[in-house]
Amino acid sequence: MKEFELKYGCNPNQKPSRIFMRDGSELPIKVLNGKPGYINFLDAFNSYQLVKELKEALNLPAAASFKHVSPSGAAVGLPLTLELKKSYFVESIKNINDSPLACAYARARGTDRMSSFGDFIALSDICDEITAKLIKLEISDGVIAPGYSEKALEILKTKKNGSYNIIEIDPSYIPKAKETKDVYGITFEQGRNNYKIDESMLDDIVTKNKSLTSDAKRDLIIALITLKYTQSNSVCYAYDGQTVGVGAGQQSRIHCTRLAGTKADTWFLRLSPKVLNLKFKKEIIRPDRNNIIDGYINHNEEDVTVDGIWQKYFTEKPEYYTIEEQREYLDKITNVSLASDAFFPFSDNIIRAQKSGVKYVCEPGGSLRDDLVIEEANNRDMVMVFTHMRLFHH
């Protein structure tokens, strides 16, 4: 297949639309089911690069959940605790810990379940039956992987009344060293960002505290590779083998840190007893549960604890989750890792990061105020690494 015709581009008025290889060679993919669109393919190709690099860097199966050309979450295949299974709504998947790939996707989807609604999924390994069963439960647009077991493909083809997008990519495919794109009829050309992210990026520890644990190194690598494929400016929080908050596409660095930090706070609070013990009615489906939990934690438009409202969702009235209770819970969180795709220009980012339990920080360095940022990290006994490599992605 040398080209694939698309229904339209980013929007319905943008026709004609297709994907093809400029040199006339074969596309490195097969569409096994459905008819992916322009944005589907953008998400698929960006996300597959992410999981392929995670697998190469950490030697663990990896998965990503993408929406609008940025990851909602990414993770490697570590086993799930009972609390994570409950928080991610995967208790019904028997033997999920037997499939590291399924665990990776449960974690990636679980980073920010509201943002992952209708995601595009990337898997580093051949999709197995357990992973396919998990994917079938979620509202999703499609999946890309280097292959599918016979049973997994059978399961996935039943999604969306048989129209679910399933893409197989050649894992041996290597893109050309130069890449181009057109903006306003003008062609841009640059060298592909093939910079390898590994533990060697974490050698320059600039703080007094230099105790960088193996778990922290793993999580910082996950955060850095995630940022490599996140629309800039971006900041990523990671913990226990997965992202827990991704702040993408903000013009201000502190806004990235706040956005990602708020998502990380929500992720941790979803694991608190008050949330895990919410008594949902059986008929409340997964997407609605996510919205209700988000409202319960973040006190959004509808107070789900008041009379006349809680009865719609719960069998028992939940207690109001006060800001003071949440702060007490979050203050116990520690050992969170944070990465930034460019330097922190002000120390306010460090102050905000610690509120979400951040202990380990990596950023390129190079700001005129590096000394003030390092001083703030020292004041908070953080470990900070300068990577000396910017990771902008546009």
- Assign the CATH superfamily of the largest domain: AICAR transformylase, duplication domain
CATH architecture designation of the largest domain: 3-Layer(aba) Sandwich
**What proportion of the residues is helical, as a percent range?**
25-40%
Give the beta-strand count: 15
Described by strand count, sense and barrel closure, the largest sheet is: 6 strands, mixed
Q: What is the C-alpha radius of gyration, as a whole number of Å? A: 21 Å
Which descriptors apply to this entry?
394 residues, alpha/beta, Cytidine Deaminase, domain 2, five-stranded mixed sheet, 13 helices
What's this, in brief?
By secondary structure, this protein is an alpha/beta fold. Helix content is 34%, strand content 21%.
